[in-house]
Amino acid sequence: MKLDNQGLLIVISGPSGVGKGTVRKALFQRSDHDLEYSISMTTRKPREGEVDGVDYYFVSKEEFEERIKNDQFLEYATFVGNYYGTPKDKVLDKLKSGSEVVLEIEVNGASQIKKKMPDAVFIFIAPPTYDALEKRLISRGTEHSDAIKERIEKAHQEIKLASQYDYIVINDEVDNAADRIMAIIRAEHAKTTRTIDEYLKLMEE
Amino acid sequence: MKLDNQGLLIVISGPSGVGKGTVRKALFQRSDHDLEYSISMTTRKPREGEVDGVDYYFVSKEEFEERIKNDQFLEYATFVGNYYGTPKDKVLDKLKSGSEVVLEIEVNGASQIKKKMPDAVFIFIAPPTYDALEKRLISRGTEHSDAIKERIEKAHQEIKLASQYDYIVINDEVDNAADRIMAIIRAEHAKTTRTIDEYLKLMEE
User: Which residues in chain B are contacts of A180 at CB distance < 8 A?
Assistant: First the structure.
């Protein structure tokens, strides 16, 4: 019996190269739980094959800035001249309908969300070692060594922020990490702070 | 990768008749996790077949009272003229060796433990309804209707104490309850408060 009918907002974050995306994908392959992914909004142009409302919500710069003004993002950032953000209304609708919403975002975005959604569950995906992180960044093959060095330096800073998260999940093995996140979701639904009001009401009836 | 090498003290409590024992047994049947049960100490005489150090630690009244004086119990109580208690040293040894220790105790005992072991994980096993609780007490067949009425009244008081626990697990179906407790144990091991010091140390090396 589940007491809280609200879904949970699960924020998965961690340093660049830690494997957030891989862990998130492994999580969504588990068929025994209803998870929803939040679709980001962006001002960048769609690439070939990308579908509006599936890959991203594609909007104009004017619309995006209007939404920032109206506090309609849980978090947003700019990257190579384009805006990227998490639309608040879409996330809240999904949570109300009882779905868990998973956000996979950068450390800075997670900090923005913590201010707006303190009830969200913040999970820091951590590398087992800096060496493992470096290896992963090199194996991606998308960046030259200076950029990788920069990312490792940034990771040193970001790992200090792990203390602000609710959970630390080490990505030593992607399936282990996904299993641990599933356990966290189940445990959070049983947390007294989330369920006590509903339970006492139920027992009064 | 597990960060905290200490085991967790898992305190399972709830009203009489809620099925704490059944849930605990289901939990111990799961072979995928190392759980240890804390053996109580008592001044009651061993029944036929009961083994010292297996069913209980059997001690004299004098020894028990000496141990109370020396603060050697996590909790204790008297029942029908005999003492029953949880020996502190045995529990601490098991936790240090990395085992999770499961205590299945009455609500009053759980309150005593909360003062001595604030890091323990407190799980309130809750009945789905008062009717379900009454049915279970009746089906035990060990008590007459006045005693059952008294237990139900006590349950009304004890359920108000659920707010002091970390988690509420409704015992609607014993395997569901045991699954949820396993998820709680896994999630607690990933909690930042339990792991951050160890993780930052690991990353400095």
Answer: 186-187, 190
Spatial contact of B34 and B95, defined as CB atoms under 8 Å apart: no
Give dist(CA B183, CA B124) in Å, integer: 15
Can you tell me the ipTM of this complex?
0.88
The residues pairing with B24 across neighbouring beta strands, listed in sequence order, are: none
Q: Which two tokens stand for residue B201?
A: 């140390």
Strand-pairing partners, residue A124, are A13, A168
Token duo for residue A165: 């998260």
Using a CB cutoff of 8 Å and minimum separation of 24, what contacts does A21-27 make?
Answer: A21/A104, A22/A171, A22/A174, A23/A125, A23/A169, A23/A171, A23/A174, A23/A177, A23/A178, A23/A181, A24/A102, A24/A104, A26/A174, A26/A175, A26/A177, A26/A178, A27/A102, A27/A178, A27/A181, A27/A182
Amino acid in the structure at residue B72: Q
Nearest CA in chain B to A203: B129
**pLDDT single digits (tens) B21-72:** 899 999 999 867 779 989 999 999 999 999 999 989 999 999 999 999 999 9
**Across the 205 residues of chain B, what is the mean pLDDT of every consecutive 10-residue run?**
80 92 90 84 93 94 97 93 95 92 92 94 94 86 83 89 95 94 95 92 85
- Decide if pLDDT at A80 tops 70: yes
List CB contacts of B37: < 8 A, sequence separation 6 or more: B24, B28, B101, B102, B104
If you measure CA to CA, which chain B residue comes closest to A179? B186
Q: Name residues whose C-beta falls within 8 Å of residue A65's C-beta, 6 or more positions apart in sequence.
A: A83
Mutate to test the interface with A, among B121, B168, B170 (most CBs of A within 10 A): B168
pLDDT at A139: 84
Q: Give the C-alpha separation, B93 to B72, whole Å.
A: 13
**Which B residues, 185 through 204, put their C-beta within 8 Å of a C-beta on chain A?**
186-188, 190-192, 195-196, 199-200, 202-203
- Can you tell me whether residue B102 is helix, strand or coil? strand
Contact A168 B159 (CB under 8 A): no
Q: Nearest CA to CA, how far is A170 from chain B (Å)? A: 7
CB contact (8 A) between residue B186 and residue A179: yes
**What pLDDT does residue A31 have?**
67
Q: Which residue in A73, A39, A43 sits closest to A56, CA to CA?
A: A39
Indicate the DSSP class of residue A101: E
Tell me the pTM.
0.90
